Please model this.
Amino acid sequence: MKTRTLILSIAFLILVISHRSDGQQARPVAEQLKLAGVMPRGAMVYVQANDLSTLMKTWLASPVRSQFYDSASFAAFQKSRIYLKLQDRKKDIESAIGIELNENRVAELAGGASAVSIYDIGKIEMVFVTEVPRVRAVASTLFKQASQFSERSANGTSYYVHDVTTDGGRLNQQFCFAYVEGKLIVTTTEGLMIRAVANAKAAGSDSLLSDVVALADGAPGFAAHEVTMWLDQQRLNANRYFDNYWIHHNVHGALAGIESGLIDLRITRQGMNEQRWFKMAVGGPGLGAEAISADQLAALMKFAPTSAQLAQVHGASATVQLSSAIEQSLFGKLPEESWSPPEIPDRTRKSGNEDENTRAERYSRLDARFDMDVDDEQAPKRGKGSVGNVTGKTNSNEIAGGGFKKSIGSILDGLSPASFCEFVRSKVEAGKPFVRFERAIVAQLKPEAAVNREMLERAIIDELLARFVVAGTQPRLEWQDDGAVRFVAQALLEQGAAYSVSGNYLVLASSKEFSRDILEAAKASTPSGEKTDAALDFYALVRVSAAKPVFDTLMSKLDGREPQTKINRNKDDDEERNVKFFSENVSSLIAASAIREVRVSRRSAGSLMTEQLLYSW
Model:
């Protein structure tokens, strides 16, 4: 079996551990995070495990481990630049010290409480500490190679050093290890070893503990469980490796407002409970919404049908946010690009192979220009920055539209909407090549609010005509009743809309079927099951396993690959072909994780933002 990197082991280790909580009374925060006291200050990331030995044994025996290593996701990662660079560094260290570094070596060295801190991502400067009996440490392969190391002393304590030349001879480092005060310490620079030895004897001002505890003390409900991570987000944001390799590329966006973070993972037989506490920077972006009470959450989630694969609950905010959500749910998202009038073809030119090839090449990849070229020139244009409907001549370079958002906004202003919920579901219809997406909004209105149905229906019809009907045609779009649901009846237009009023809740959906299912779910006598012990700013439910079959179908079509129930691949073949990102890489990662659904909740108080993620197997 090929050697696996330590980073991948840590990443997927947390997905497979399953045992009950110890139920003991919480210890002081400083004691729970005591290994941070050994770490020198200046770390970007600190990760600790309550019992690394048990975690490693469970990981090595887990079927999830083999599923991940056999997956297309890992095959793609093996070809990535960061993986190849890590492998080169690891091989240089192994060649220098004469010891193979892999998961089995980590399992051999791992004791109970253990931690690792990273100081420089590019140079891989790090400190590893584990509490292990001296007899076991001395019997390890590492100590058996001590004769190949130089023995030195710091504060009267011996440690072992071996020089390592890596990065093609451009970087000189040291691989060091020592046993101090019941702890095995391993570092990748001698300077970090000297500082760690001093901290192990008596943690002082050079210890990372004060930085970690400062956030943990202000984190409501914090307790260290199986895995705990502290991070200096500001330092990470300034690191070019993090900026380049962080897949979300939001260093200058959502992450810019975070100073530091604390994340704790608790693992049970039912799933995982991930708690996050983020200290926000002064002047960071606010959420701009009122809190969602426990009663509001339960009432809104009661509308969620079992077929909805995504549900998001938002607190009350400006009417424009709800108006935008309704517009997107009923009609879809408009392109962000600025609109320009279609080019007038030059019919005086002679057509030739060059022109034909140019035209074919232009449409080989259909981007936003394709939509603009084929749009009806006389139809009202819809786009970002649109104001009002087109009712006459306008500047041909201006975008008209946005009338629906204004119309629905004026209706909502009189209803004083509170919190609202978004639902999304997708499905593959037999005999049709595409995936169908249905979206809906459920908005809580003030008591005794009366919806102006005439204005609402007229606004929806006008927007359907403007967006989906070619000018000069007169399709029959009219409202009809299906029980408590009002929907748009049409002959040729597949895009639809429906709404209903249930008590003080307004339900708007992109189809009458989805609207009907939402109302049926609300009639159920069983409670929604969504509970919270405090007010929230945001809540979401993602049914991963329910969405995955549709995800696979859609992404296989987009990637140009036929979906298969089981992919039988030769590992040598993976090295010679590109792994499709969505249909293979992401899909296989989801399958290996075995996560059925995820619940996300977020709340903020002052400069602290708290998130909870509940993963269910």
In short: Residues 1-11, 13-23, 385-400 have pLDDT under 50 and may be disordered.
